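Chain particulars:
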Amino acid sequence: LARRIVDEIWNQGKMEVIEQVYANDFTGHIVGAPGPLHGRSDMRQFVNTYRSALPDLQMTIEEVYVVGDRVFMRWKSMYPAPM
């Protein structure tokens, strides 16, 4: 699921995947978000805002840790330099 989030939602902009991989009552703590994200609608709004500002952004997963029912990811963001 962690890889789908990065590959399909963030890198490809497939917003319908949010409905498939996030629970209705999830809470997310994401660097760059104004605070904790609560639920699918918060996640959808955050991704839309971010991708609108940086449409060519690509993320690469560096590490994934799973502890109980929590997943922690570290990724690298790359934005192509203008030509």
Remarks:
- Residues 61 and 75 are 4 Å apart (CA to CA).
- The chain has a mean pLDDT of 89.
- The two ends are 34 Å apart (CA to CA).
- The first strand starts at residue 27 and ends at 28.
